[in-house]
Amino acid sequence: MARQPAPRTSPWHAGEKRLQEQVGVAERMEAFGQKVIRDHMPDQHRAFYHQLPFLVAGTVDAHGKPWATVLEGPEGFASSPDPKRLLIETGRPGDDPATPGMVVGGAIGLLGIELHTRRRNRINGLIRQSFGGSLEVEVEQSFGNCPQYIQQRVYRRVDEPAQGRLDSTALDSHAVQMIENADTFFVASYVDLPQGHRAVDVSHRGGRPGFVKVESNRLTIPDYAGNLHFNTLGNLLENPQAGLLFVDFSNGNVLQVTGRTEVILDSPLIKAFEGAERLWTLMVEQVVLRRAAISLRWAFQEYSPTSLMTGTWAEAEQRLQQRERQRQWLTWGVLRVEQESRDIRSFYLAADGPVPFAPGQHIPVRIPQAGAAPLIRTYSLSSAPSDGHLRISVKAQGPASRYLHEQIAVGDTLQVRLPMGSFTLQGDSDRPLVLIGAGVGITPLMAMLREQLAMRTGRRIHVFQGARSLAELPFQRELAQLQWQAGALLSVHRALSQPEPEALPGRDYEHAGRLGIEQVKAALPLDDYDFYLCGPASFTQDLYEGLRAVHVPDGRIHAEAFGPSTLRRHGNDNQPVLQQPPAASEPVPVYFASSAKEARWAPASGTLLELAEARGLSPDFSCRGGSCGTCKTRLVSGQVHYPNPPAELPENGTVLICCAVPARLEEGAQALVLAL
User: Fold this and answer.
1) Nearest partner of 252 among 170, 155, 173, judged by Cα
2) What residues does the FAD-binding FR-type domain cover (predicted)?
3) SS3 state of residue 113
4) Among the four residues 243, 358, 423, 432, which has the most C-beta atoms within 10 Å?
């Protein structure tokens, strides 16, 4: 009988595995780690270390504090006589807090990094010899490091003596400025494994200047998408000690800090910071500033493209404040009321300050009900940002809208939230613009039209407007005035399905019958336009299908549907369709984190919104069709499926619960947890 090979030891410890499991990649990373994490250096890595002018090292002192530092020397100061050893010939300054950890038998982490090429490699090992200016390191692990956040710099050497060491237990103004201006730092961490074995790791972190937040002696750092090793954060989960190294690349100053960390896996700040997937903090306990400590100087070349896609703390705090304000109910006064048609009325609103918004967005409005929970409805802004005022135009067709028509007058107030919604005019196109609206669906298109004309772009615009009768056709005077002002740039095409006898073709409308693709085809060659559609679900779906049938690209058709349905898209042949996990067909547990409630979803339970309501929760909603975004909820973990995908998907980490159901729960998948 053939002997089975002994199972290989996992390359990951408990902390790394915990984070890999948290993001659902543990099984894949177990197999991957066996391939890429070696107990020796490949020849190309040995050659790479030999050409470097510096290394970053991580060590641990006698008090158990990790420190990160720079080891430097002439090219060739690091060499590898064999794949298991790295020899380093370098001075070890007595004032470097990392030096006491460089003793025989001590664990060390090494990062070989070449800033001008963004190449990098890591070694974790043991110091076998330490004498004079020489270190011999036995390689225990050799592996690649994520290059995504390395800023490109070129180096030179200077002959300048070191200027001494300053110690402190707190960050002074100079240290704070150095950290806040940094686009790169290095972090040392370690973990004590079974049988008394210690493993030290050192890595780099990068981002835009301002990506490290300083609050007194507390640093907060975003953790971006990387190689999924989680070497550093895995260490910090097991042992919260870390040492950070900040280098002033212009003058050779180094700032070394050590302290206690906390890994944050769930916080509103994570979603507010662009690119962050987690956060971690360090409470500084010891600070060492060594001026002109290294002889290398670097000139900045360019940011990593990935770094430019990340945020700063100033931006994150602004975004957080904006989100918090968006959740708040504000009181706006009613300045003016105008009847736009038989059943559509405009309300001009006064906010308490400037309100930024994009043409096409809407505002949630909270309508009181005697003896019942308030109704929340969303109404499109029919004014443009350039108008200097806020206007919603509401059709009387339900209890909320009838309340506005019958109860609200000039001088009254409304409870509203700030504008939201992704059905907005894209400003990066110069193609002719086609706006097609039925009934009250013309309201967001009016905002788009007014803004385009105010910007004087010279862009040709076609407006198609449909209604049942002339009495129900809104904004007639306003459109006539805009057409007179714009001249040949604006064409208006009106269709009435049941025109009054006194309504004259050519004067009051252009087409008799329901507005649809045939009227559009009759008026336009349909060769190169951007289309924006808004109206009842059947109207937008029919128009969408008609446009796709004449080969209008899917990406040039923007739509918002009213009612409990969303647009069903189908992409171009050369474009991928929406990829999403299959819907659950068996019962799935659903956890509501904020309310500490649990429910069991079954296929008969309907949407996640309906499940939450059945469990006694009252999430905000309006359209129940995925159009307005009012029900958007943070997805803590798990996956969802959209039986009818919304026209615009929410950002990652959020879900429109009004039109989503749980995805099939595969073995090992994360449970579905919503922040409700």
Assistant:
1) 155
2) 327-426
3) strand
4) 243
* Rounded-to-integer distance, Cα 418 and Cα 363, Å: 6
Domains in the chain, CATH or no CATH each: 14-310 (2.30.110.10), 323-416 (2.40.30.10), 433-562 (3.40.50.80), 588-674 (3.10.20.30)
487: nearest Cα among 522, 458, 455: 458
169 vs 152, 246, 257, 289, 579, CA distance in Å?
32, 16, 9, 11, 52
| Tokens coding 298 | 């670097």
Helix-helix angle 231-238:14-22, to 10 degrees: 120
Phi-psi region of 76 (alpha: psi -120 to 50; beta: other; left: phi over 0): left
Radius of gyration of the chain (CA): 31
Is residue 169 packed enough to be buried (19+ CB in 10 Å), middle (13-18) or exposed (0-12)?
exposed
On whether the CB atoms of residues 607 and 625 are closer than 8 A, the answer is no
Q: What is the DSSP letter of 439?
A: G
Task: Tell me the residue length of the chain.
Answer: 676
How many CB atoms neighbour CB 193 within 10 A?
12
| Category of 542 on φ-ψ map: left (φ > 0), alpha (ψ -120 to 50) or beta | alpha
3-state secondary structure (DSSP) of residue 340 = coil
Amino acid at site 352 = D
200: CB partners within 8 A, 6+ apart: 58, 59, 60, 66, 107, 108, 109, 124, 188, 189, 190
Neighbours of 64 (CB within 10 A): 12
129: nearest Cα among 160, 95, 85: 85
Q: Are 246 and 280 in contact (CB under 8 A)?
A: no
* Phi then psi dihedrals of residue 252, to 5 deg: 80, 5
User: What is the mean pLDDT of each successive set of 10 residues along the chain, which is 676 residues long?
Assistant: 50 87 80 86 93 96 97 95 95 92 95 92 93 89 81 94 94 96 96 89 94 96 86 94 97 97 89 88 97 95 89 87 78 96 96 91 90 87 94 93 95 93 82 94 96 91 96 96 94 95 93 94 90 90 92 88 63 61 87 80 88 84 72 85 78 84 76 84
Residues facing residue 371 across a β-bridge: none
3-state secondary structure of 134: strand
* Residue found under tokens 């201006």: 181
CB atoms within 10 A of CB 501: 5
> At how many degrees (to 10) do helices 26-36 and 14-22 cross?
130
- How far, in Å, CA of 647 to CA of 567, rounded? 6
The SS3 of residue 190 is strand
Find the DSSP H helices in 252-383. 268-272, 305-308, 313-327
DSSP H or E run through 373:
strand 372-380
Write the single-letter amino acid at 449. Answer: L
CA distance 403 to 370: 12
Q: Which two tokens stand for residue 325?
A: 């304000």
Burial class (CB in 10 A: 0-12, 13-18, 19+), 428: exposed
Q: Is 279 helix (H, G, I), strand (E, B) or coil?
A: strand
Question: How far is residue 210 from each of residues 178, 181, 252, 313, 410, measured CA to CA in Å?
Answer: 10, 6, 20, 6, 47
Whole-angstrom distance, CA of residue 516 vs CA of residue 466:
9
| DSSP state, residue 505 | B
